[in-house]
Every structure is written in C-alpha cells, then in structure tokens.
Write a structure and sequence with these properties.
By secondary structure, the chain is mainly alpha-helical. It is about 80% helix and about 0% strand. The chain has 3 helices and no strands. Helix 1 runs antiparallel to helix 2 and helix 2 runs antiparallel to helix 3. The radius of gyration is 14 Å and the shape is flat. The chain starts with a helix and ends in an 8-residue tail after the last helix.
Length: about 80
C-alpha cells in the first residue's frame, strides 16, 4: 500500500460523503454518491481486492446511480 495515496483517497471520501449529506439538490446528491462509490472502488483496488472493486464500480457507481436517477423523475428535485 502507498500511504500518501491511501490518505488522499480517505480525504476525498470524507469530503464527498459530507458534501452528499449536505446537499439540498437531490440530483447533486445522487452524483456525489456515485462519485463516492467510484472512490470507494479505488480504495478496494488499493487494498488488493480487485473483485470487490469491480463489483463496487459496477453496482455502486453504475447501477445504483442509474436507479436513483430513475427515481428522481418521480419525486421533486429539491428538498424542503
């Protein structure tokens, strides 16, 4: 493991996760959760778990983001 890369990924996870929680715009929150899943896939890749990283990228960043976008078409975009 490369410690500076691990720390940088952890910092990105904290920033993106906090930003996703603070968003009032649901579209922005969905995009940020997709980015969170993509960064988490990179963390799994750094840890040497390639199979988990591919699954996280496909399901977390891909399918879940697409399903949440489909859900967004049925609910108001802005939180009150």
């Amino acid at each position: 493991m490369i410690v500076p890369i691990d720390l940088l990924l952890l910092l990105f996870l904290l920033i993106v996760g906090t930003a996703a929680l603070m968003m009032k715009d649901l579209l922005a929150a969905i995009v940020l959760t997709g980015a969170y899943s993509f960064i988490m896939a990179n963390v799994w890749l750094q840890l040497g778990a390639c199979d988990v990283a591919f699954t996280e990228a496909a399901v977390g960043a891909g399918a879940s983001t697409a399903l949440m976008m489909a859900c967004l078409s049925r609910v108001p975009r802005w939180e009150k």
